[in-house]
Specification:
This protein is of the alpha/beta class. It has a single domain (4-207), classed as Rossmann fold (3-Layer(aba) Sandwich), CATH 3.40.50. The chain is 41% helix and 22% strand. It has helices spanning 4-17, 50-67, 82-92, 133-144, 161-171, 181-190, 196-207, and strands at residues 21-23, 29-30, 36-37, 39-41, 73-77, 96-99, 112-113, 121-129, 148-157, 174-180. The strands form 3 sheets. Strands 7-6-5-8-9-10 form a 6-stranded mixed β-sheet, sandwiched between helices. A two-stranded antiparallel ribbon has the order 1-4. Strands 2-3 form a two-stranded antiparallel sheet. The longest helix is centred in the first third of the chain and has 18 residues, at 50-67. It is globular and about 55 Å long.
Length: 214
């Protein structure tokens, strides 16, 4: 069984290797929120690499089996975690559901697609944790529909203090991530993908993302 520190570094290496994460401190990205950032993460790219995709699935299943017992259903958050969630559910031989950000505005008006019973124990799969608000809203939708959300497993987290506070104080929901921002930039330095000077810039952004680049 692979230990968590090894998983964090290995997943970080995968994300860098396939360009799912790009680091550009000298030419920042603009996120949809308008936030300036030296990093951009698109974990959907993992799906195009079968060997890496399988390893990510392995690590996710291992994390669930280590931390959660007697899980009934696996849930994926739309759209980024639908594919991984389905792969994990298939590997574990569990039912799968997925959660939209908001209910559909037509048809049955569903926010949750798939079938589960009231009281079922559910683990939610996410691809990325930034502020944590949308992830927690997805978990809340499952709870409102009668599911018992045992926790969440995500591929990557930016490790924002605000996100950790959201999970710890406002929800009490257990969150486990395969990798995180700190492991990523450490791995990037080891692989000579960023300079020591850029390391300071990248660390500064993580602690003050709203002010960075202004």
């Amino acid at each position: 069984m692979t230990d968590m520190n090894t998983i964090e570094k290995q997943v970080a290496a995968y994300l860098l290797e396939i360009g799912a994460v790009q680091l550009r401190p000298d030419e920042p990205f603009t996120w949809a929120s308008g936030l300036k950032a030296p990093i951009y993460c698109d974990n959907r790219k993992l799906l195009s690499y079968p060997e890496i995709r399988t390893r990510i699935c392995d690590f996710t299943v291992q994390t669930i089996e280590e931390h959660f017992k007697n899980i009934d259903v696996i849930a994926g958050v739309a759209t980024g975690a639908i594919a991984l969630g389905a792969l994990v559910a298939d590997r574990m031989n569990k039912p799968f559901i997925y959660i939209r950000p908001v209910p559909k505005d037509h048809g049955m008006g569903n926010q949750i697609e798939g079938v589960f019973k009231r009281g079922d124990r559910i683990v939610v799969i996410e691809d990325l944790i930034s502020t944590g608000k949308s992830s927690l809203a997805s978990a809340a939708a499952v709870t409102a529909a009668g599911g018992l959300v045992e926790g969440m497993v995500a591929i990557f987290s930016y490790n924002f203090t605000s996100a950790r506070r959201e999970f710890e104080i406002h929800s009490g929901l257990e969150l486990y991530t395969l990798s995180n921002y700190d492991a990523l930039i450490e791995t990037a330095v080891e692989k000579n993908l960023i300079s020591a000077d850029n390391l300071d810039v990248l660390r500064e952004w993580r602690y003050r993302p709203e002010e960075w680049g202004k």
